[in-house]
Structures are given as structure tokens and as C-alpha cells.
Write a structure and sequence with these properties.
about 400 residues, binds manganese (II) ion, Aminopeptidase, about 35% helix, alpha/beta, binds (2S)-amino(hydroxy)ethanoic acid, Alpha-Beta Plaits
Amino acid sequence: MNTSTVGPATVVGLMSDIAAVGNDPTRGGYSRPIYSAADMELREWFISEAQRRSLDVETDRNGIIWAWWNPAGLPLCDAVATGSHLDSVPGGGAYDGPLGVATALIAIDLLRARGFVPRRPVVLAVFPEEEGSRYGLACLGSQLLTGDVDPDRVRGLVDSDGVTYAELAIANGHDPRHIGPDPERLAGIGVFVELHVEQGRGLTDLGRPVAIGSSIIGHGRWRLSFNGQGNHAGTTLMTDRRDPMIAAAQTVLDVRRLAGNHRDARATVGKLDPIPGGTNVIASRVDVWLDVRHDSDAVVAAIVSDIADAAHRSGADEGCDVTLTEASISPTVSFDPILRDRISRVLPDAPILATGAGHDAGVLAAYLPTAMLFVRNPTGISHAPQEYVEDVDAEAGAVALADVLQDLSNR
Ligand code: HGY
Ligand code: MN
Ligand code: MN
């Protein structure tokens, strides 16, 4: 509940209301995986804030929360949608996701204060598991909605504790048998605009508070598994080892080297999991998660192929076998140019910026006109506690989103 009792609600006020939810004392920042206590608390927070605003709130079979503002009682079609996600990466920043959700709520307040009555229904959406932190599949909720991911595959996804998505869904009141494409709901959305903290320094360098998105570079996630021979750290001579950690370590270095062969490519190993993971134990297996991005999908494929070849060579040198599994892949997305230009007319001072970060908007863009707004992040850092938005820019984002929603829902 917005604790600021004086004056109208603000983005800063809403963000401060959730500032203590999901703090991660070990990693710093926030850890809010799907359906964790923190995620559930944020979902409840959103629902109560939406209900306080007399929005009609529902949670669909994919766990997406929809909050309708439809004061004219119009048919729920050709809706103007906005929103984002509430889940986070491990140790993530405060703004990645929640800024777009909080700003959407305040944009409705601003439109009401203007006395504006939309001539299209407006709906706020909160998509679950955008980060894919628990099940490794980015934009899980929006991909279920669109049918971009197989529901059977999702039901069987297993988290690091061995909990399947189906078990988690049941534990949180959702029937996993019903997850999957929702063409009717998708057809009811006419346009989607996602506001998000900028995950870079573009706006800081340009000295502007808000930008319009042009595109999302292609990106994918893979898991490399190096299988060797587990053994005793003290009784196994160095010449008698098949140590997957050696091959994995060499591959991490090769990832950096091979990405450097392509201008503007990004390749990252942010997660490495030795099994069993004992200090005095030679690992039997090491899993390495790879994130590769580039605005050419062919370059992404080429880099992954080069990394896989290098990994197999390093594995062979160490007597280990190597498997590569694709977890998710998203092609480069260009947002609808007509919508982008229309929004640019509404926000003439907003520069047009590409992003290297994936978003639910990137999934929906294949099905309906979609746009993004970015809000300045002075540090340019994201997926880390140093992610930041100045108060004045947070409120500027709400005014910009309100202006865009007013233009789009005024017919
Ligand atoms: O990984 C991404 O680009 C996004 O933050 N999920
Ligand atoms: Mn993110
Ligand atoms: Mn995000």
C-alpha cells in the first residue's frame, strides 16, 4: 500500500513501498524468482494497488496478471496494454521490471487526474518469469501466452531444487494442465507499450530522461555440460584425472576470446555449476550457462558454434565429453516503426535507442504492434544492485507513459 499519505501517489512512492521485498543479503540487490515469497508479495502488492484504483483484476491460466481500466465499459478488444514484470535475476536491481509496473499504475492516476476517459480499454499486464531465473527460459509467461513455447516442455522444467514448473504452479494455485497459448486474449490486445529502466548509458550520455525503443538484439541461452570423472582431491594424481573443471575453465576464457571476433557481440558465462561441488572433490560434471547476443542472428549462431567446437576440443584434451543444450533463443526484434513514429510525435524530445536486453515486449512484437520506453539509469548498470533511476526521471517516465497511453487510447 502506498505509504505516502500526503498528495497523489508517485512512482517513487510505489517503488519505496516494495523496496524491502526480496532483498538478498548474500548477493546484494534483489532475488525475486517466480512464485517465490518475494514474487508472491509483489504480485499481491500489484493486485491491491490495481484494486485501489478500481481496475478489474484477473490472473490468467499462465499466471499473467491483467488489470483493466475501462471506465466507458467498452468491449474488451483492441486494448491498449502496458506493463512489465516483477521477477528479478539473482541479486538484481530494484528497477528492472517493477519500474514498468509501478509507472503503469501512476500513468492511470495521471490520466484520471486529467479527466481523460479512454476510447479504447486500457490494460496493465504483469508477466511472470521474464528473467527465466528459476527455470532458465526467458519471458516464460509471455511465451506461454503467444504459444512460442511448448506447454509440455514448460510443465517439465525443473529448478535447481528439483521442483518442476507444474509442481510450483500447483503450489501457487495455478492448474498447470491449462497453461499454454491464449489466442483469444492475445487478439484482444491492439497495442503493447512496455516502460523499462534503461540497461545502459544511452540516455545518460544524451542527457535525456526518456527514450523510445527501436529494437532488441538477438539473444539466446545454452547449457554446456562437461562430464569427467569425479574423484578424491588427495588420492588422485594429476596425471590420472579427467577433470571437467579444467575444460569448463578453458571454455569460459574461449567465450571471451571468440566473442571478440565479432564487433558488438556479447557472450557471457554468468553461471557455472560443478557437481557435486565439494572443496576436496574433483567434479564429475560441470554445467556452464552461456548467454550470447548480437543483432545478427547468424553471428549469434556462428559464435555459439565456435564456442561449442572449442569446448569439445578442451573436453577431449581432458578426457571429458561435452554436451550443448539450447535453453532459449530470441531473434533480433525491431519494434513496429509506425507505432514508434507515432510515439515519437507524442514524445518529440525522446531519442530512439536500441537495447541489448530482452523483454516481454520482444515476444509480443511478433504478434501485435509493440513499443518500449526507456527511463534514464545514471549508472547504466543493470542486473546488479547499482541499477538506479533518479526520482525526477521516474516521474518523467510516468508522464511520458501517460501521454503515450492517452494518445493511443484516444482512438
Ligand atoms: O536477460 C535479459 O536481457 C533480460 O533482462 N531478461
Ligand atoms: Mn532483466
Ligand atoms: Mn526486465
